[in-house]
Amino acid sequence: MRSLHHCPAPAKLNLFLHVVGRRADGYHLLQSVFQLIDHGDTLHFDLRDDDQILRSTDVPGVPQDQDLIVRALRLLQAEYARRHGRVPPGIEVAIEKILPMGGGLGGGSSDAATTLMAANHLWQAGLTQQELMDLGLPLGADIPFFLFGETAFAEGVGEALQAVPGPDCWYVVVEPGVAVPTPAIFSATDLTRDTKPVTIADFSSSLAVSGKQLGFGKNDLQDVAERLFPPVAEAVAWLGNYGDARMTGSGACVFCAFSGEREADQVLAQVPSHWKAWKAHSLVSHPMKSLLQNQAVME
């Protein structure tokens, strides 16, 4: 096999996001539930006749050498060479980019995770799911989740993951039209950093009561994002007319859960024209997860 095309890189939503402390190195300790949804970027991979890693698609604002896709491929290529004593063929990547940068949807991290799964398969590199997660973590704290590939209760800096049943629902997601830089949120002096820790049982029991709606916890980063970026506050206020609207990640996208697609469509039809908005269904597992099974060494 020399190509893998139409590889999905789904977005994620943080159903809640609590900051429960801070480590000595300055990193914040988090609790969250990550939910995959069926909306995201699409990547295409082709093996090359040399050993070069190239991105054939221009991504505004992201130079090739800084792209998590390229960096992930180079890391895996080096790991392959370390294990097998030879460099695998290069890979050329094309990307259909629809997820906004600075949106809190994990787009760059999801692209990197899909890349690691695809390259591991094309090269028959033989890395396990956990080995890929360990390889990806230094590039971004969200990458292990996308490789984990199912609804997860996350702790630590987001890398300690446990599978948890998630809601079966539809989401309306509003893009407020601003990119929120994560460091600006976490460095704010008024950020809540001492939310009382919760348990998986707390989340699961809430889900059992509320069914397909959201309702559990909050996003501790939202108040800061609303203050620094008024369009986020406007989107939360508008979508809040239809349910429990909240921001995902460090922003800027805002979402609300609905029981069915028809209800989501009705709300989507009312979204003001100056915002981009879309609907998505919750995913039980990552559509690329099967590639992690039965990896053999390329000979």
Note down, in words, how this protein is organized.
- By secondary structure, the chain is α+β, with helices and mostly antiparallel strands.
- It has helices at residues 68-84, 107-122, 129-136, 143-148, 182-186, 200-210, 222-228, 230-239, 261-268, and strands spanning 3-22, 28-47, 53-55, 91-96, 152-155, 160-163, 170-175, 246-247, 254-258, 276-281.
- A hairpin with a 6-residue loop joins β8 and β9 (254-258).
- The longest helix is centred in the N-terminal third of the chain and has 17 residues, at 68-84.
- Mean pLDDT is 93; it is low at 294-299.
SSE arrangement, N to C: EEEHEHHHEEEHHHHEEHE
Strand residue content = 25-35%
Q: Quickly give the structural class.
A: alpha+beta
- In whole angstroms, how far apart are the ends? 13 Å
Unreliable residue runs: 294-299
Number of strands: 10
Number of helices: 9
How large, in whole angstroms, is the Cα Rg? 19 Å
Mean pLDDT score: 93
> Could you give a short account of the major beta sheet?
6 strands, mixed
Share in helix: 25-40%
* Morphology call: globular
